[in-house]
Design a protein that fits this description.
single chain; alpha+beta; two-stranded antiparallel ribbon
Length: about 90
């Protein structure tokens, strides 16, 4: 399912128009992104938890040249599925 299909599904289930469903989906994505940017965790009980994981700087190799290179530290978004989501997938 891509983003447009998700918007269409939200519109069908909620009874909203596609434009309103688009705004709703975009608002959810923006809200989650903003919370993660601030370093907060987003917990959706029964669905899962979005969080930020800090990745340390490391040394790697360029696959083309074999030359060593430094990979800088970064923040990585993470998602951990909740029990309700896991159960709904494993029926």
């Amino acid at each position: 399912m891509n983003k447009q299909e998700l918007i269409a599904q939200v519109a069908d289930i909620s009874g909203l128009g596609k434009g309103e469903a688009n705004k709703a989906v975009e608002a959810v994505f923006e809200s989650i992104s903003a919370a993660l940017k601030k370093g907060d965790e987003v917990r959706l009980v029964g669905f899962g938890t979005f969080s930020v994981s800090k990745r340390k700087a490391s040394t790697g190799r360029n696959p083309r040249t074999g030359e060593e290179m430094t990979i800088k530290a970064s923040n990585q978004p993470k998602f951990k599925a909740g029990k309700g989501l896991k159960d709904s997938v494993n029926i």
